[in-house]
Every structure is written in structure tokens, then in C-alpha cells.
Amino acid sequence: MSDPASQSRQKTIAIVEDDANQRQHYAEALRSRGYEVLEYADRKSAISGFQQTLPDLAILDIMLGDEVGGGFELCRFLKDRDAQFPIIFLTSRGDELDKIYGLQLGAWDYQTKPVSLEFLITRIQSLFQIKANTASGRPSNNTRHIGDISIDEASMLVQWKKTPVNLTPTEFDILRAILNTPDGVSIEDLVNATRQGVVEDNTINTHILHIRKKFKQIDAGFSCIKTRYGFGYSWVC
Fold it and tell me: Which residue(s) pair with 89 in the sheet?
């Protein structure tokens, strides 16, 4: 596994947060880890900055000043610019519908405040690690093969029929939990695997929907993630 400090070099993270104290708190923590940080207090200033150049990652609050859905609008803007652009929602809005909507917009992760800085930094490092490993397609020596799928927990790389699957950190955690439980994994255990605090069934189902979609983009006939109604999911190929 690559050194997290080396991953952070020359990576730029934008934080869009209307609370100045919180914004500064996160920014200082990220700068201390070697990241370049851009700070924006509202949607308009963020869009102005993003029109000049895109950072490597954006951390968005949802409510920005008087705009109750300003972060959602920013997410749409960024995804229009680059469909693969990584976005983390960091917000006090923990409603299930907000989480599902954020994931449907294409967010890589959705974290509800308060969240520890160490945990947030770990999620960011995981995200950059997955992007780098998926781009290189190079697994480590710890790759596990289960039929046509290979999963490398060290490099967080998943391949289906030798083609990398571009999963988010949360999606990787969910898939790993399914693969590690041959008899099927419960919704409760998948909630724990996401490490996102209070997560409801429909949010897990949305993650599963996205995972299936990404596999089907590689293989239209993919059907290995089976629904266990009233329980959870299992991997059957």
C-alpha cells in the first residue's frame, strides 16, 4: 500500500461550507496532511472557482447560507463538468431522503456531522487510493479471486473479468462485506460496514443499486448480487 502522505502531495481539495469556523477547522486539518485546500463559503463563489479549474475532490455542505439545496446544485454542476468527479457530502442533514438523493446525484460518500477529522481524512485517503489503483489497474500481492471477481483489500481494487470496477469507498466496503459472508449478509451488518452512523435500509439498497449498475456497465449479464428478501444480500455466481 502506498504511503498516505505521498498520496496527499499535489492533491487539491475544495471545501464548500458556509460556517467559517467549521470550514477553517477542516481546512487546517487537511493542510496539515499535505493537501492544498480551497475554501468557499457559498455556491456562487465555488462555481466561479470551479469554472477556472477543478480540484481533485470537493467536500460539500448541503445547506449553504439561504440556499437549502446549494450543495446539491454544486454537485450537479461538478458532475456535468466531469461525471467521475469525486464528491463527499459533509452535512448535518442526516435524513434518509437526503442521503439517497446525494448518492443518486453521484456523490462518492455522504457523512453526517459531527465526524472526526481522523475518520474524514481516512475516507479521503481511501478515495484517492481507489482512484489511483483503478486507474493503474495494478493489484497488490494480496488479491483474492472468487470466480470472475478479484478483490484486493490492501489496494482497494476490484476487478470483474479482469476489468477494474470504479467503486466508491462506501461501495467497496459493502461489496467486501457481501463477499466475506458466503451465506449472505444482513442489512444491519451492511449498515455497520458503511461506517456512516445511522443508515436506513433504503440507503443500503441505493448503494447496492449503484454497485450492480457499475458491474453491468462492464458485463450486461451481471447478476451475482442476490437480494435476500427480509434479510439482506448474498453473492451467488
Answer: 60, 110
Structural domain count of the chain: 2
Domain boundary among 79, 105, 128: 128
Q: Residue 133 domain-assigned? A: no
Domain containing residue 62: 4-128
Residues linked to residue 15 through DSSP beta bridges, in sequence order: 39, 59
In this predicted structure, the answer to whether residue 5 has a pLDDT above a threshold of 50 is: no
Answer whether residue 87 is part of any domain: yes
Report the chain's C-alpha Rg in angstroms: 18
Contacts of 65 (CB under 8 A, 6+ apart): 18, 41, 42
- Each residue of 113-151: pLDDT tens digit? 888 888 899 889 888 877 776 666 565 567 899 999 999
Q: Grid coordinates in use for 169?
A: 469507498
Q: Which pTM was predicted?
A: 0.73
User: In the chain, which ranges are E strands?
Assistant: 12-16, 36-40, 57-60, 87-91, 109-112, 144-146, 149-152, 157-160, 163-164, 185-186, 225-228, 232-235
- Distance of alpha carbon 172 from alpha carbon 159, whole angstroms: 11
